[in-house]
């Protein structure tokens, strides 16, 4: 029917407008800006200068590598901490306690990330709870600063990512029929190889989607490193912010943005390839 | 060609999906007030046919006429037909009364009349106090009746039913068969009912069309289809039967002698012209075969060995082996002695009860 | 391992201890924020100076409470303004996308679906800066070419709305598409069959089916917008939304009024979360 073609374009156009104007065009434009050298005498010209600067300045590429490394570490730690909890919720807890536990895991994440980071700041700072506790126990004799170091960043990032790991894991594990585990036992398996050969392969889509989201959120996080990290704990998003907002060097900032985007896409793509998952199957959950 | 008494008529109706022909050049009419069934296996095109009648599919060619009005440019919401969907499609967000009033509301019937009509139809389907119930509160059989009431309140020319009993369990299905038939007679509406279950079609219908590969193999009363199937497909699909393959040895009027693959020769009735030497299929219904001594006088006889008794109350059968082929034979419960596996038996049957039909696809 | 294959008593107890520790870890920062909002001290830190409502109702500097801190109240209004628009736009986009992806078949559908998920794997900071660069350049160009200054393309709340819609629309689309896929299209056909037009059928049958999901997707969109930081940070002008205002206070080293704002946020989120959860359990039954 010609009628339905008309309808099709009616429903297609919002999608195109949204993705075109708010996602694709800005990124294409940012790529363009990052490859432009601005000069009042010669006008704008194509240049790889901003990318060259990134590789020539150790501060920049070291920050880049460090950010990626901490984000990967965060992702793995989040997975390790969350998996037993997700398993407990999905397979061991029953009825009411299951619901309560699941809610307890979800509810903190309905509160702004800023508030959560702030809570940790109160706990960890020199005049904070942890220091006070250790003082009163006599373990330390002077207040100790637990904030403003890499450990604090890692803690903050793991904490922020937790929800995005637990929810996909629980839903993946929940969908595993108990009879598979029973069959594994019945056929002579033990806990470890059932975990390795039945439970984990089944939960793989959940694991991958959790890891991708946590990695992405950590890599692109600005708040936690800024508030909880020390003065020398450089984070790549801070570099981007500095270039854009403080130095007003948009060409350089755009180049950094493209580099960060490339890194995150590359790692997301690699992890999808390695685990043979697709973006729509992992994100669709 | 269309007759004023016809509620529905189709001519040369065809529907193609890419290269697949779902409905192939069908022409038929349904008289007013009849219960017309279309019986066929899944994939035979019956659902496509029904959806074309309702207006959800557009014919590739051919025309549909409902009560004298050509339908090809009439959208589904303006056709004088209503449909009971396979899974009923009762609106879960509405109450029973709202479901039934839905169509009336679309026609602009005022509130007072709507309420009156809803109460009326609810009473007629035997659920007078269910108006305020939610759909999820109804039992399977009640949902069935509400789905029908929702259509009948609109007094359609034709009610289309898309295997609505499929989802019910066996007991309820048996019960609903009778109830549907009674509802149809009470309202006098023309029903077009599609199903793959031959017993549903036989029990309820005035007329049944057996459908296969997008065509009607045969249209007739349930009795005709059962007693005188015209094609091997119909013989096999309607009712239980034993089938043998063979070649025609001689033909004399409507009596043919066929040499079966296992070497025996049987006499059979044939209506279509079968040529000498042609491969045919021979069908004998289990209830037409006699067992043991009572059988001596019949024309066709076979020696057989009992394999198994298939006990099913009044419908009990015995499975026997006749020279390498398995045959099912009805037996009465009182006859049950001597059916131990391994026992020898003789079977016999009349040639009039034996049907000889050309093999499928051979004509 | 599962109910029918119990673990040994020792490992079972150990597991429970782990879950308990995890819960403490999860709830500690929030509990700390709440407790310290009642500390009658100028700093959100030990020592405890006694219980007080001053950070909620205090009327005078330096102990100015939340309900008299006009700058904070204003930023809450800004956030609400942004969140309302983001919710409306996201839901409209999501509804169009749901219809497009569930009811139409077209070439490149899978590709379009992946494209729709793309904003979820772009770090928020990058999404923010790319929109900042693109919109500023567009505004400059319009200004140069036609001497026409377009205010809403400059950093400010309108741009914040656009930046947030860019990724929140993806999330609400996912939620709505998942629900719409469960819709039995024969219900719509039944409506047509009973005499409804396509539009009436959509409003009387399809929309009621989607309604509870629209509400829960709306709640999620609203909260995500209200609490967004990374994208917002890059796009704000002179009017600060709440998270940005809180961030600036934190960097200045603020009073416990931040705690009381956080508690307010928690209460607000908790209420919305409970509405959301009751909606989604209703959906399942």
Please, could you describe this protein's structure?
Chain A is mainly alpha-helical and 285 residues long. Chain A contains 13 helices and 2 strands. In chain A, a hairpin with a 7-residue loop joins strand 1 and strand 2 (45-46). In chain A, helix 2 (49-56) crosses helix 3, helix 7 packs across helix 9 and helix 9 (191-219) runs antiparallel to helix 12. In chain B, the strands form 4 sheets. A 6-stranded mixed sheet of chain B has the order 6-7-8-3-9-10, sandwiched between helices. In chain B, strand 1 and strand 2 (20-31) form a beta hairpin. Chain C is built from 11 helices and no strands. In chain C, helix 5 (124-146) packs across helix 6 and helix 7 (185-193) runs antiparallel to helix 8. Chain C is globular, with a radius of gyration of 24 Å. Chains in contact: A-C, B-C. Chains B and C meet through strand 6 and helix 2 of B and helix 7 and helix 8 of C.
End-to-end span of chain C in angstroms?
29 Å
- Total DSSP helices of chain A: 13
Tell me about the biggest sheet of chain C?
none
Poorly predicted runs of 5 or more residues of chain A: none
Q: Using only CA atoms, what is the Rg of chain C?
A: 24 Å
Work out the strand percent of chain A.
under 5%
pLDDT averaged residue by residue of chain C: 85
Structural class of chain C, by secondary structure, is mainly alpha
β-strand number of chain A: 2
How many strands of chain C?
0
Largest sheet of chain A: 2 strands, antiparallel
Oligomer description: heterotrimer
Give structural attributes.
heterotrimer; A: 285 residues; mainly alpha; two-stranded antiparallel ribbon; 13 helices; 1% strand; B: 363 residues; alpha+beta; 6-stranded mixed sheet; 5-stranded antiparallel sheet; 8 helices; elongated
């Amino acid at each position: 029917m010609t009628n339905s073609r008309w309808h099709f374009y009616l429903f297609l156009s919002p999608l195109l407008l949204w993705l075109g104007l708010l996602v694709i065009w800005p990124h294409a434009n940012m790529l363009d800006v990052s490859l432009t050298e601005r000069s009042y005498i010669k006008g704008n010209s194509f240049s790889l200068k901003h990318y060259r600067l990134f590789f020539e300045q150790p501060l920049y590429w070291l920050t880049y590598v460090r950010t990626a490394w901490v984000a990967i570490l965060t992702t793995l730690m989040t997975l390790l901490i969350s998996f037993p909890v997700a398993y407990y919720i999905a397979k061991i807890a029953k009825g009411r306690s299951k619901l309560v536990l699941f809610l307890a895991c979800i509810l903190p994440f309905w509160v702004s990330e800023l508030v959560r980071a702030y809570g940790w700041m109160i706990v960890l700072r020199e005049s904070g709870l942890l220091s006070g506790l250790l003082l009163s126990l006599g373990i330390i004799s002077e207040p100790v600063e637990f904030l403003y170091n890499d450990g604090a960043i890692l803690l903050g990032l793991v904490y922020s990512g937790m929800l995005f790991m637990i929810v996909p894991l629980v839903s993946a594990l929940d969908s595993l029929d108990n009879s598979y585990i029973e069959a594994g036992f019945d056929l002579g398996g033990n806990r470890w190889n059932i975990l390795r050969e039945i439970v984990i392969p089944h939960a793989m889509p959940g694991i991958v989607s959790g890891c991708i989201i946590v990695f992405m959120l950590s890599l692109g996080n600005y708040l936690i490193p800024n508030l909880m990290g020390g003065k020398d704990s450089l984070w790549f998003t801070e570099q981007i912010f500095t270039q854009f907002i403080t130095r007003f060097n948009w060409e350089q900032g755009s180049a950094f943005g493209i580099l960060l985007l490339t890194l995150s896409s590359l790692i997301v793509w690699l992890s999808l390839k390695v685990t043979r998952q697709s973006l729509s199957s992992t994100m669709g959950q | 060609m269309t007759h004023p008494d016809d509620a529905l008529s189709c001519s040369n109706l065809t529907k193609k999906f890419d290269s697949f022909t779902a409905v192939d050049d069908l022409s038929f009419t349904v008289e007013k007030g009849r219960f017309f069934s279309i019986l066929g296996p899944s994939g035979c095109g019956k659902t496509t046919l029904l959806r074309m009648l309702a207006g959800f599919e557009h014919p590739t060619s051919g025309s549909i006429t409902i009560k004298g009005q050509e339908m090809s440019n009439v959208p589904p919401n303006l056709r004088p037909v209503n449909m009971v969907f396979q899974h009923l499609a009762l609106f879960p967000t509405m109450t029973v009364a709202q479901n039934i009033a839905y169509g009336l509301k679309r026609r602009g019937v005022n509130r007072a009349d709507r309420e009156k009509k809803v109460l009326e139809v609810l009473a007629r389907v035997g659920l007078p106090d269910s108006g305020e119930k939610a759909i999820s509160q109804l039992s399977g059989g009640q949902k069935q009746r509400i789905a029908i009431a929702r259509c009948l309140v609109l007094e359609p020319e034709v009610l289309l039913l898309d295997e609505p009993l499929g989802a019910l369990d066996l007991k309820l299905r048996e019960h609903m068969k009778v109830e549907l038939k009674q509802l149809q007679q009470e309202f006098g509406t023309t029903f077009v009912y599609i199903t793959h279950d031959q017993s549903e079609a036989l029990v309820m219908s005035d007329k049944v069309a057996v459908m296969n590969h997008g065509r009607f193999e045969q249209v007739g009363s349930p009795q005709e289809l059962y007693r005188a199937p015209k094609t091997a497909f119909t013989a096999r699909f309607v009712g239980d039967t034993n089938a043998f393959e063979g070649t025609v040895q001689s033909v004399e009027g409507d009596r043919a002698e066929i040499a079966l693959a296992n070497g025996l020769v049987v006499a059979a009735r044939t209506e279509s012209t079968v040529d000498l030497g042609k491969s045919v299929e021979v069908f004998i219904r289990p209830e037409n075969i006699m067992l043991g001594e009572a059988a001596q006088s019949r024309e066709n006889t076979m020696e057989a060995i009992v394999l198994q008794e298939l006990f099913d109350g009044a419908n009990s059968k015995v499975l026997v082996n006749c020279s390498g082929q398995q045959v099912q034979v009805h037996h009465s419960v009182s006859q049950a002695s001597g059916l131990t596996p391994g026992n020898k038996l003789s079977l016999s049957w009349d040639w009039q009860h034996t049907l000889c039909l050309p093999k499928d696809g051979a004509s | 391992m599962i109910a029918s294959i119990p673990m040994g008593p020792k490992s079972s107890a150990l597991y429970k201890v782990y879950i308990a520790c995890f819960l403490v870890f999860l709830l500690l920062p929030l509990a700390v924020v709440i407790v310290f909002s009642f500390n009658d001290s100028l700093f959100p830190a030990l020592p405890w100076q006694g219980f007080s409502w001053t950070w909620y109702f205090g009327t005078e500097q330096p102990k100015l409470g939340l309900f008299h801190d006009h700058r904070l109240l204003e930023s809450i209004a800004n956030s609400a303004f942004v969140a309302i628009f983001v919710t409306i736009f996201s839901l409209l986009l999501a509804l169009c996308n749901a219809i497009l992806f569930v009811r139409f078949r077209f070439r490149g559908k899978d590709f379009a679906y992946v494209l729709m998920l793309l904003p979820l794997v772009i770090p928020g900071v990058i999404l923010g800066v790319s929109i900042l660069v693109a919109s500023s350049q567009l505004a400059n160009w319009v200004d140069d070419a036609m001497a026409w200054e377009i205010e809403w393309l400059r950093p400010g709340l309108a741009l914040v709305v656009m930046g947030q819609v860019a990724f929140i629309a993806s999330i609400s689309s996912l939620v709505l598409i998942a629900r719409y896929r469960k819709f039995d299209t024969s219900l719509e056909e039944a409506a047509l069959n009973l005499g409804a037009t396509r539009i009436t059928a959509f409003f009387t049958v399809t929309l009621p089916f989607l309604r509870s999901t629209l509400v829960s997707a709306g709640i999620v969109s609203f909260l995500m917008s209200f609490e967004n930081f990374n994208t917002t940070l890059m796009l704000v002008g002179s009017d600060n939304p709440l998270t940005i205002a809180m961030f600036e206070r934190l960097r200045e080293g603020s009073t416990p009024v931040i705690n009381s704002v956080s508690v307010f946020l928690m209460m607000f989120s908790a209420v919305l979360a409970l509405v959301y959860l009751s909606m989604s359990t209703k959906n399942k039954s």
